[in-house]
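Reopening this one. Same input as before:
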Amino acid sequence: MVEWNQAIYNVAMAKNIRRMKSDLSIGITKSGAMTISAGLRDKLLEKNKKIQYAHAGYLEDENLIMIEFLTEGKKDGARKITNMQARKGTSAFSAKAFFNQMGLDYSKLYGKYDVEPIEELDGEWWFFRLK
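Same output, byte for byte:
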C-alpha cells in the first residue's frame, strides 16, 4: 500500500519544465504574427536585456526568413515584441504587413520553425528556412 503522506515528499512534480527545456524556435500564426519560444526569448535576453523589437527580412532565393532583434524600433519596419521583458506568456510581434509585402501567404506557413543564429553579422540576427 502507498504511504501517501510520505509519497507527496518524494514524488517528482513538474515545475515549469516547459520553459526550462524550451527549444529555440519561431512560430508563424494563422493570423500573421510571429511567436518567440521561451527558450529563444531567454537566450536573447541573456545577451541583451534591452531587446524589445524585431525586424524581419525575406531571402527569396534561399526561402528563408531573417530576423534582427533590436533594442530600439527606429528601423523602418521594426515591430514591438509583446511580453518580451515580462518573461511571461507568449512573446510575439505582428508580421502580417511583412508577409503581405513579401507576397507570402502566412496562413499556409503556419507552424513552428527551428531558428539558428547568424554569427557572421553584428547584432542579434537569427534565421529559419520556410517549409
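So the earlier flakiness isn't reproducible anymore. For the record, The chain has a mean pLDDT of 88.
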